[in-house]
Structures are given as structure tokens and as C-alpha cells.
Protein: Protein-export membrane protein SecF
Amino acid sequence: MTNNTSTSSTNPAETTDVFAAVPEPPKHGFFNRLYTGTGAIDVIGKRRMWYAITATIILISLASMIFRGFNFGIDFEGGSRIQFPAQGASTSQVEDVYRSAIGTDPVSVQTVGNGGNATILIRSEALNTEQVNTLNEALFTKFQPKDKDGNPNRSAISASDVSETWGSQITRKALIALAVFLVLVAVYIAVRFEPHMAIAALAALVFDVTVTAGVYSIVGFEVSPATVIGILTILGFSLYDSVVVFDKVEENTRGILHLNRRTYGEQANLAVNQTLMRSINTALIGILPIVGLMVIAVWMLGVGTLKDLALVQLVGLLVGTYSSIFFATPLLVSIKERWGPVARHTDKIKARRAGAASARAGLEAERRATAATGRGYRDEEPRTPREPGQAPRPGARPSGKRQKRRH
Structure:
């Protein structure tokens, strides 16, 4: 029997070149991945950061509402409303006349309408009959407002009192409508998707209302009945955006518990990125008509109600876009990974990846040793000769050719 042994020497340079020759996967830019929805932003992986940002925004809003309060309009606090044809009068001139006649500043003076139909609207604290008569006389003396026939007439100046009970009634009805809306939303999402998604959506809606109210408190915007109505309208947009993202999350995570490659959070993050451009485009398309409404209401028509409605919609649209992307879905993943089958599945995937990472680290160390010394770890181990009659080791190569018996 003849033993044929063969030895092979490994060149370190050749080994290094082999590994260096492996092509790297193509790397796409941020905006390319953002447009294609292939994971430009790691929203779920960095959800602790987004939680911190969200908590900071909520704390600032609550602090402003508690310590600064709101600038309630005349419909909530009560007061007097005086209106007369503008006919060239400016708001600064009307403020001066009011200040000299009453001794205090008005709450607001604005021009309503445009052209020949423009009128001056004065909102002030509650005035008694004597103060109203004094103010009317001063306004008529200064501006000489004309009636429909074109003649100067004191009846062209109208004065009315607004009770604060009307604003409280509007607020109470709005709160009832809000409660009914939230209940219906929770039931729908729980039935259509799952209860965990309903909890996340409701939390996002509460965030939207709180932050929108906080912005009004910080900036000092006047809170009117149109503001309350506008808050109810922005909830619909926020809910729509959250439902779109949740629908994609449900599609990506369907059957995830039977797969061992990706976790629930990773699939949810993919869903967020796949719908990110859609959310941004929807927000931009929604902002354009709102800005147009504000321009028409303030600069052309001077309608304060339209301005208040457009303002709250603009703020709510931006806040709702943020909450549906960076708060609702991360909160859903945190709830799912807290307990239940999704939590166990995530732990199993992480344990499996940790083992695979350790194995890759060992292979990488062996590769580096081979490239540096020309031999691997297995070559350094002494080989003991096999005793006669001893079975070969598992995986050992035969030492030579066996003689076949010829017949």
C-alpha cells in the first residue's frame, strides 16, 4: 500500500486578495432610499430618541397651558362687539378713538371684508350703556359712518353684547363630540386591525390635541369657536395617516411569527419607510390650500373666522404627520414587544443572530490568522497518529488508495 500525501502552502497575499475581490453591495443615497422606501430612517430602532422628543414637546405644551394659559376670545369670556362701515378708517385710528373715549385698549380691532363692503369690528371687554354711548359718539364724530343711503348716520354703528355662556356651550358640545369620536375610532381600529393598534392611534390623537393646544398657548393665538371646530377636523387627518401606516404594518407583519429572518419591529420600520413619502406628500398637498385660505382670509377678505380655522388646521396637520410616523408606530412596536408571542419571537431572532455573530467573529479571526501566518488554527494543532485498528476520525480524509481485489 502506498501513502500519497499532499501538502499545500497558502500565500497570505493570495488569501487577502480573494477576500478583497468579493464585491460590496451597492450603497444608495439617503434621498434615494427615502423615495424608494427601503429604510432611509431607522424610526423603530431609534424609538427611544423619538419618545424623548415627544415627551419634551408634551411637557412644553402642558407647562405653557398651566402657567401661561390661553388667549380666549370674546365668545368665551364675554364682552361687547361694535361694528361700523370702514370707509377709509384704519385700525390704528379706531384704537386711538377707543382709547381716548373709554380709557383702556380694546381686545381687538380688525377690518372685515374688502372694498366698499369693508367694516371695522371692535371687540372689547363688557361695556355698560353709558360707555357704549360715549364710544358711539366718538366714533361718529371721527369717522362719520354712512348708512345704506350714503348719509352720515349714528345707526350705522351697531353694538351688541356677547355672553360667555355661548362659548362654554360650544366647548361642552365639542368635548362630547370628541369623546364620541374617540370611542368610535377605538372600536373601528380594534375590529379592523387589532386592539394594540387602537391604543397607539388613540395615544397619537391625544398627542395631537395636546400639542395643538400648547402651540396656541405658547404663541398666544386667540381661541375662538372656530379653533375648537378646527381641532376636531385635524383629528380626522391624523387618524387617516395612522390607519394608512397601520395597514402597511399589518401587511408586512402577516405571518411574521413563522419566519426567522426579521423581527416585528424591523417589518414595522419598513412599513413606516414605505409610507413615509406618501405621508409627506399628503401633508404638503394639505398645507397648500390651508395657506391659500389664510392668505385669502387675512389679506383679501379679512374674515377672522376663516383665519382661526385655517391656523388650527395648519398646526394640526404638521403635528398629525409627526405623530403618525414617529410616535404611533413606535408605540405599537413597544407594546407588541412587551409581552406575548411577538416578544418571544423577537427574543428568539436576537438570540439566533447573537450566535451567528459569534460564529462569524471566529471565522474572521481564523481568516486573519491564515492571511498573516499562512496557516490556520487547525494546522497548529498537533495530529496524533491513529492506532492500528482504530476507526478514523469523523471527517478525516483517507490516507491512500485502497487496493481493489481483482477477480
